[in-house]
């Protein structure tokens, strides 16, 4: 029979695991917001800070890995509990990758000239806002094991894709008409692609959250 102490220790470990994931999500959101702010204002000091702070996310991911291994080795979780631990492992890796994308955006800040020439600079913050909202909502869904909110996050990815397609067409046209801006425009394309990938990763997390809460993947249910 499982002792009350063992159950309490397991619950504490799971609570700690959720807390680490939430902390990672907050750092990733802040990094994305800061990277776009630095990009729009050409603030290279802020950009350098975003790049340096990425190490905090890396450290938290390592802590999640260690804790998850400890839980599996010592607590031998089953069914729902095991799904949650595995989902946390995967989610931590994805959130760390979101932070990497924000870092990559920050690295482009000093490589863009003539910011006022580019209309997409007015679209990129709006695109990033949708992606950041997806990250925020999916972490909320994870904390609450909210399958319905996870599905809403998945649906939001279409908006990010639409932004990307619009920005891509605009920048390609701009490069054709203004060859001298090709280098800077290419950097902005890279930024847009990174934001689009953040949306994709938020969607991946949402699918994991949905699975952890229900035992099914959204696509599996749609096909039945």
TrEMBL record:
Signal peptide position in this chain? none
Q: Which UniProt keywords apply?
A: Cytoplasm, Phosphate transport, Transport
InterPro entries in the record, alphabetically?
PhoU (IPR028366), PhoU-like_sf (IPR038078), PhoU_dom (IPR026022)
Query: Is Cytoplasm given among the entry's keywords?
Result: yes
Tree of life domain: Bacteria
PhoU domain location, by residue? 21-109, 126-209
Q: Which Gene3D superfamilies does this entry report, sorted A to Z?
A: Phosphate transport system protein phou homolog 2, domain 2 (1.20.58.220)
PANTHER family noted in UniProt: PHOSPHATE-SPECIFIC TRANSPORT SYSTEM ACCESSORY PROTEIN PHOU
Database matches in NCBIfam families:
phoU_full
On subunit structure and binding partners, the annotation says: Homodimer.
Protein name (record): Phosphate-specific transport system accessory protein PhoU
